[in-house]
Amino acid sequence: MKLKGKVGIITGAARGIGQATAYQYAREGARVVVCDLNLEMLQETLDELTKMGADKLAYEVDVTDRQTIQQMVDDVMGQWGRIDVLVNNAGITADAQLKKMAEADFDKVIDINLKGVFNCAQMVIPQMIEQGGGVILNASSVVGVYGNFGQTNYAATKWGVIGMTKTWAKELGKNGIRVNAVAPGFILTPMVQKMPENVLDMMKDKSPLKRLGTPEDIAHAYAWLASDEAGFITGTVLSVDGGVVL
């Protein structure tokens, strides 16, 4: 059990990669803190964690609302006394070509995908510093490294997350805090599953492995990076993309 005794917070845990990560952390022995925009959305995750016998807490958190984040952090500290891992997974898309993108859609994606990561990290680092260490894991994307048609806002946030990851790794290493990012490729999340079959086939063909990734593929990466096995890894961006960018 790679994460036995550790307390891990996972944002955007109601579905997809966040949900799979919550399950993987529970399997690895962690105490799991799941949060999303509303508790009703989290019910499926909570039900499965209960079946697994996991120690769990759930919170209604908007990552753009610093007060709700702070309330969660304070409550977790009151209940379990430490925070070992933060997985900044919450994110959205609002795609459009540059010439058609609404300013409101640009701002919303920046607020959640970029500033939300900043907000959550800033709220947990005092606890990690006080306890002598911790791990922050940020969701980037291959889109953040290579760009993607119609995703000006999304690509900007995922590139920005890489910059923050490397900066925080330099700033916080002296406090025993490791900071890394994961850059998924084409992942078969519920949102992607709704795409036309021909689009899914095209995405598969771009990968040397000839398949889409699963949320579990990313969850395994998040679990390993949070574990002591990755204890000398910080400031890196781990691509989990099936070789799609080769």
TrEMBL record:
SMART domains tied to this protein? PKS_KR
Q: Domain of life, per the record? A: Bacteria
Q: Write out the pathway annotation from the protein's UniProt entry.
A: Lipid metabolism; fatty acid biosynthesis
Q: Where is the Ketoreductase domain?
A: 6-185
Which reaction(s) does the protein catalyse, per the Swiss-Prot or TrEMBL entry?
a (3R)-hydroxyacyl-[ACP] + NADP(+) = a 3-oxoacyl-[ACP] + NADPH + H(+)
Mind listing the UniProt keywords for this protein, alphabetically?
A: Fatty acid biosynthesis, Fatty acid metabolism, Lipid biosynthesis, Lipid metabolism, NADP, Oxidoreductase
A molecular function (GO) held by this record is: 3-oxoacyl-[acyl-carrier-protein] reductase (NADPH) activity
Which SUPFAM superfamilies does the UniProt record give?
A: NAD(P)-binding Rossmann-fold domains
- Look at the named UniProt entry and state the broad enzyme category this protein falls under: oxidoreductase
Q: Spell out the PROSITE patterns in the cross-references.
A: ADH_SHORT (PS00061)
Q: What EC number(s) has UniProt assigned to this enzyme?
A: 1.1.1.100
Write out the function statement from the record: Catalyzes the NADPH-dependent reduction of beta-ketoacyl-ACP substrates to beta-hydroxyacyl-ACP products, the first reductive step in the elongation cycle of fatty acid biosynthesis.
Q: How does it assemble?
A: Homotetramer.
Similarity comment: Belongs to the short-chain dehydrogenases/reductases (SDR) family.
Q: Under what name is this protein listed?
A: 3-oxoacyl-[acyl-carrier-protein] reductase
Species assigned in the record: Anoxynatronum sibiricum
Provide the taxonomic classification.
Bacteria, Bacillati, Bacillota, Clostridia, Eubacteriales
